[in-house]
Amino acid sequence: MGGETAVSSLDARELEAFLALADELHFGRAGERLYVSQSRVSQLLRSLESKVGARLVDRTSRRVRLTPLGEQLLAGLRPAFDTIVRTIEEVRDVARGVGGLLRIGFQGTADDQIMNAVALFQSRYPDCATEIVEIPFSDPFGPVHRREVDAAVVLMPVQESELAVGQVFSRQPQSLAVSSRHPFAKRDALDAEDLAACSLIGVHGAAPEYWRRAQAPTATPGGRPIAAGPSVSTLQEGLALVQADRGAMLLCHPTADYYGRRAVTFVPLTGLQDSSLALVWHRHHETARTRAFSQALAAVAGTTG
Predict the structure, then answer these.
(1) Is the Cβ–Cβ distance between 56 and 66 less than 8 Å?
(2) Left (φ > 0), alpha (ψ -120 to 50) or beta: where does 208 sit?
(3) Contact status, residue 198 vs residue 182, Cβ threshold 8 Å
(4) 4-45 pLDDT per residue, tens
(5) Rounded distance between C-alpha atoms, residue 177 and residue 179, angstroms
(6) How confident is the model at residue 85 (pLDDT cuts 50, 70, 90)?
(7) Is 248 helix (H, G, I), strand (E, B) or coil?
(8) How many helices (H) and strands (E) does the chain have?
């Protein structure tokens, strides 16, 4: 009744091995990711190449890279394979109900909106446990990439191609945190152009440069340079330096209220884009749990404005 088709001859394990190798460009790491040996990855790849009829990967003693045909296969295979995996997970989740464990990361503090969303999610899906995990201020996206959390509430902006952005919420005007001894502490309000007269405390660590620049810009909207102050890895470190009059720090109003202290003054600031938070998760690891929590967060954000 007809010969074997190209699709029917394929093995899902071969496709998984190829995708893992395309991501890692290293046979050992691809094997670790799939919980198989390096030689097994090589065997699966050779089998796939045999069925395709061409080399998909160039291997040398120093590097691994995709051939042009490998790049073409990756471009078409990745979204299709992800759709298949996601569909199977959705059907399985519907069959089982939303259960298991959802780990939610947050930066700084888990505010009322996050905790209300957790409560709503728990009421909707009592069979799913939730775990709230503080993630480093200086590494907002790393825990999601490393699968230490299933989703994370992070400060915008988010320009990571592998991350899906769910609910964006808590849009708030910025404040400038300064020492109570700083001249700005006597002001009722500040404009973004005033930042040229102070140094901003920055963030160091694994956070991408565009994100760090958003938290501590190097120029005002009008183009005036802003001096760079010391950099920190945690919010508490930053506020300690503000208190010591080592620089100023941009914070949204709720964060300023939460971390208010006598030696630090928070002055309203206009002229910069509002601060906002977003729920993010890895596109390749999306589940019914992450989508359901994003919906719960959207419901809470919609009622609180």
Answers:
(1) yes
(2) beta
(3) yes
(4) 545 556 788 999 999 999 988 999 888 888 888 999 999 999
(5) 7
(6) confident
(7) strand
(8) 10, 13
Q: Which residue is it, tokens 């003054």?
A: 265
* Confidence band of 59 (pLDDT split at 50, 70, 90): confident
Q: What is the C-alpha end-to-end distance of the chain, expressed in Å?
A: 62
Contact of 233 with 206, CB cutoff 8 Å: no
Contacting residues for 11 by C-beta, under 8 A, at least 6 apart = 44, 47, 48
Residue type (1 letter), 180: S
Separation of alpha carbons 30 and 42, rounded Å: 10
How far is Cα 44 from Cα 31, in angstroms, rounded to an integer? Answer: 11
Using alpha carbons, select from 62, 72, 93, 60 the residue that is nearest to residue 22.
72
Sign of the CA dihedral running 254, 292, 206, 220: negative
pTM reported for the whole predicted model: 0.67
Q: With H, G, I as helix, E, B as strand and everything else as coil, classify residue 176.
A: strand
Q: Are 27 and 41 in contact (CB under 8 A)?
A: yes
